[in-house]
Amino acid sequence: MYDFNYEWKRNFYVGFSGNWVPGDVSNHDQQLNTFNTLYSRPPFGQTVSLNITNTLNLSPYIRYSDNHKWLTTLRASFVQRASLRDGIFTPNMSALLPVIGRQIESNASGVADIFALEANYFANKHLAFQFELGYCAAGAYLKETGPGKDVQYLATRAAYKF
Questions:
Q1: Beta bridge mates, 60
Q2: Fold for domain 2-160?
Q3: DSSP bridge partners of 122
């Protein structure tokens, strides 16, 4: 995981972040050598890392942070398969794609392009709210091996810290 940013104007940042979770490089050795994120040491003190496997995520963004109440991010995430010789798995290594009964082999690398606007409001040191509006354009790999539909979404979250 990486995150580089630069404060180009007071409280405004331009940045580039993402992650790389390797996939299996050979589908002929009878072993699944995909990196298992369930047992990795995740960043930022999380208990487990929740990334799907075999992905490369490149994510440019613009962020506003007043360092007190607001943190707002406009982000694009371009996600593709890290290895064309592997599917995509959940953190517990259950196959997410390809879906049984659909096309198994695919040379497509595009998983999804995600565009999102996220706003975090910190009411006080105990209470925070998060709002996210986004659009996910399904990539060719999702369309070939699974249901692969474009999705628009709105997400909200409230957190209370003791």
A1: 16
A2: Porin (2.40.160)
A3: 128
From 33, 115, 42, select the one nearest 78 (Cα to Cα): 115
Decide if 96 contacts 89 (C-beta within 8 A). Answer: yes
Q: Indicate whether this model's pTM tops 0.90.
A: no
Per-residue tokens: 86: 């592997």
Predicted pLDDT at 38:
57
Residue ranges in the chain modelled with pLDDT below 70: 26-28, 30-51, 90-94, 96-104
| Helices and strands, counts by H and E, the chain | 1, 9
Measure the CA–CA gap between 54 and 48, rounded to whole angstroms.
Answer: 17
**Peptide bond before 98: cis, by omega within 30 degrees of 0?**
yes
Q: Which residue has the tokens 């990795």?
A: 40
CA nearest to 143, candidates 85, 77, 98, 100: 98
DSSP strand E in 55-142: where? 55-65, 70-81, 88-89, 95-97, 110-122, 127-138
